[in-house]
Amino acid sequence: EGVRELIRKHPHTRKDYFHVYANEFGAASLNVMLYVFFETPDWGVELQERHKLFLSILSLAAELDVEFAFPTQTLHVVRPGEMPEHVDLGSSEEALARGREAAGVVGGQA
């Protein structure tokens, strides 16, 4: 809601039509759709105003103690034929059953 308020207060954004919603899961992120239009005389001014809005969003995040994660990768190396002790794949039927059970708990059906 804070980002929506920044859009409402920004002097060069359309106030009648914008969207801010969690939109998809990325490989290392939760992507938020920021769908906003700028009312500016030319593209250069639009870029400046977009920049100002993004800086305002970063300031808002800092004010709310929201941190942005940067993509990282961890590589686990095992010898051929060895499986790490903490990995228990089980059968595919067991995995399906665990997934359905967990979804029922999360969805309030358990």
Structure description:
By secondary structure, the protein is α+β, with helices and mostly antiparallel strands. The protein has helices spanning 2-9, 43-63, 92-106, and strands at 19-25, 30-35. The chain has a two-stranded antiparallel ribbon. Helix 1 packs antiparallel against helix 2 (43-63). The relative contact order is 0.11.
Mean pLDDT score: 86
* Number of DSSP helical runs: 3
Summarize the amount of helix as a percent range: 40-55%
Number of distinct beta strands: 2
Task: Map the helices and strands.
Layout: H1 2-9, E1 19-25, E2 30-35, H2 43-63, H3 92-106
Antiparallel strand pairs: 1-2
Helix pairs in contact: 1-2
Could you give a short description of this structure?
The protein is of the alpha+beta class and 110 residues long. The protein is built from three helices and two strands, in the order αββαα.
State the main characteristics.
single chain, about 110 residues, alpha+beta, two-stranded antiparallel ribbon, about 10% strand
